[in-house]
Design a protein that fits this description.
The protein has 608 residues and is α+β, with helices and mostly antiparallel strands. Helix content is 48%, strand content 17%. The protein contains 21 helices and 20 strands. The protein starts with a helix and ends with a helix.
């Protein structure tokens, strides 16, 4: 290994190093804004560093790393800074020179973590104005104090900025870059862009006519209407953003987002519309407030109240509790949504699924018909829930193999659990009987002592009451234990019936609980080809391709390739039995002869 590598990573007494030795130097400079005055200041900084290099003839400048118009509160947002640290790790220099701590970082944690890492690889940092060398004995102490002051200055600056923004909002100052559909920004105000404004009016007109956001997006794509970016690329969400934007009424809206804190500075959406601040703008409206208010009323009324299984009510177009919504992930990478497809003759509802890519952005086929770019768009149409149900039936019929043997293994597992818990219960009963016998003996002795006058009446009564209370408690526990033992006698027929229902031996379909236990993802490749990803236990993952073609009445799903094990029958019986028992919902566990579902789950984990 190279000598210089060994030198950089061995423990070194840095206080003994000669600062006048030859040094390979990197210079770091930063300005926080792109204003002309700041850029000029940066040029002055570089000139100042050149002067410093002349004062230190032992310095050999390797590179200059400059970040312009970038905050110092986060190292990850400064590309030149990150490049400098990466070069330091590669040994390109052994000294970083910067003017002061606040130029290096305004975050105490970043400052200390980075300088410690650099020190560990033999790279020193010199803060000229603060006269801090990080390899000095007190270097880190002085650095932490200066970094704390720099961070506090950032906090104060952030507060001043927020106060200035509040005043600006009260004065109606226009924020943003002006890239809003329908307007061109001219100075501190907006002017209507008539061509784009026509698109905005079209969106509101179509919405008030009863069309949905996806229908409007398709209409705009068909008419080749351009977005604010100049692209013919409309989706449902971009239409909704136009409908929700109060700017089109000639109003300025503030407080729709905020920075989470002065260190991280992430923009966070404000979802509470009641806290938005509205001010009349000095620019013309594209749509009237009456039209805009009608659109908001329609948008809110279209949201439906959906009752979930646990009795809660959510505002949505579907229930997020659906098992297939949780498992489906389209081959285009998007999650899927359940929508009502049609109502059957018996009044029951049939549901279908399609991905959010197609819902929000439109179909691949439609864009191709209109001569538009279709790259990245989804071509899989909505498919019915019956396909998923039918494939699940076929999959589990083949996957579980010898179902009778699996159920027998599950019953043996339950017997083992019952035997173990019964042994513990019997041990507890024996201990209680011994305690009760001891209490009876003490009560007899207490009566003799009172008769002989060895204890006073008050003391006798106090001790007797204590013993009687303890005896009553133990007798009550004994009755409960005997009652549970009697009630929980093994009923193998009832248990077997529950297990058979679970693994589809009674014609009621595969249970949702079993699907949830074994299937962790279903990916539609087309309307007729689905890939199922399964997990049956440690080292027993599999991917099964299923084809489902034809109509519901004459459709027979078929397996189209299995990866992960050679054939479904090779799934170990004990693994399958454990997965089946693990899929039993709480209410079914309570019906089985188990002390508690939680205790059984702990037992099951031990035997898997």
């Amino acid at each position: 290994m190279r000598d210089d590598y060994n030198y950089r990573f061995k423990l070194t007494d840095y206080t003994q190093l000669d600062r006048n030795r030859k040094r390979k130097v990197a210079v770091y400079g930063r300005v926080s804004t792109e204003h002309e005055a700041q850029i000029a200041a940066l040029e002055n900084q570089m000139q100042w560093y050149d002067d410093q290099a002349r004062y230190h003839p032992n310095w050999e400048i390797q590179d200059r790393y400059i970040d312009e118009g970038i905050t110092g509160t986060q190292a990850k947002k400064r590309p030149s800074f990150l490049r400098m640290i990466d070069d330091a790790r590669q040994g390109k220099f052994d000294l970083i020179v910067t003017r002061e701590v606040c130029r290096f970082a305004r975050n105490v944690v970043d400052t200390l973590v980075i300088t410690r890492e650099l020190k560990g690889i033999g790279v020193e940092v010199y803060f000229i104005e603060d006269n801090i060398w990080t390899m000095d004995g007190d270097g880190e102490l002085r650095l932490s104090l200066m970094a704390t002051l720099a961070q506090e200055e950032s906090r104060k600056t952030s507060e001043r900025v927020r106060a200035g923004q509040k005043v600006s909002r009260e004065k109606g100052v226009l924020y943003g870059n002006g890239n809003i559909l329908g307007y061109d920004r001219v100075g501190d105000t907006y002017q209507i862009n008539e061509e784009q404004a026509e698109t905005v009016r079209m969106i509101f007109d179509l919405y008030l006519q009863g069309k949905g956001s996806l229908q409007i997006a398709n209409e705009l794509n068909a008419r080749h209407r351009k977005s604010a970016m100049g692209l013919v690329k409309w989706c449902a969400s971009s239409v909704v953003r136009v409908l929700k934007n109060a700017t089109y009424t000639g109003t300025k809206c503030y407080n729709k987002s905020r920075s989470n804190n002065y260190l991280e500075q992430h923009r966070v959406l404000n979802l509470d519309a009641s806290t938005y601040q509205y001010h009349e703008g000095d620019f013309p409206a594209i749509v009237s407030k009456e039209i805009w208010n009608k659109a908001q009323s329609i948008r809110i009324n279209r949201r439906k109240a959906v009752a979930l299984r646990d009795g809660k009510v959510t505002i949505s177009n579907r229930s997020s509790e659906d098992i297939w919504v949780n498992k489906l992930r389209c081959s285009c990478g998007y999650a899927c949504r359940r929508d009502k497809w049609h109502v059957r003759k018996d009044g029951s509802i049939s549901y279908g699924y399609q991905c959010y890519n197609r819902i929000n952005n439109g179909s691949k086929q439609k864009r191709e018909e209109m001569g538009l770019d279709s790259e990245g768009y989804c071509g899989i149409r909505m498919y019915g829930d019956w396909k998923l149900e039918m494939m699940a039936d076929t999959l589990f019929e083949q996957l579980l193999g010898d179902k009778h043997q699996i159920i027998q293994t599950a019953l043996e597992l339950l017997k083992k659990y019952y035997k173990e818990t019964s042994r513990k219960d019997q041990q507890g009963n024996s201990e209680r009987k011994i305690q009760l016998e001891r209490i009876d003996t003490r009560l007899r002795n207490l009566t003799v002592m009172r008769a002989d006058g060895e204890i006073r009446k008050e003391k006798y009564q106090e001790l007797r009451d204590q013993l009687e209370a303890e005896k009553s408690r133990l007798e009550e526990e004994q009755k409960k234990a005997e009652s549970v033992e009697c009630r929980e006698a093994m009923d193998l027929d009832r248990i077997q019936q529950a297990l058979e229902e679970l693994v589809h031996l009674k014609g009621k379909g595969v249970s949702r609980e079993l699907v949830d236990q074994i299937v962790y993802r279903v990916t539609p490749v087309s309307e007729t080809h689905f890939e199922w990803y399964l997990h049956l236990g440690p080292g027993t993952d599999a991917q099964v391709g299923l084809l489902v073609e034809g109509k519901k009445g004459n459709c027979v799903p078929s397996v189209n390739g299995i990866r992960g094990f050679l054939n479904p029958g090779e799934v170990k019986t004990d693994v399958a039995a454990n997965r089946i028992l693990g899929s039993l919902p709480t209410e079914q566990l309570h019906r089985l002869p188990l002390r508690t579902p939680q205790t059984f789950a702990q037992f099951q984990c031990k035997v898997v």
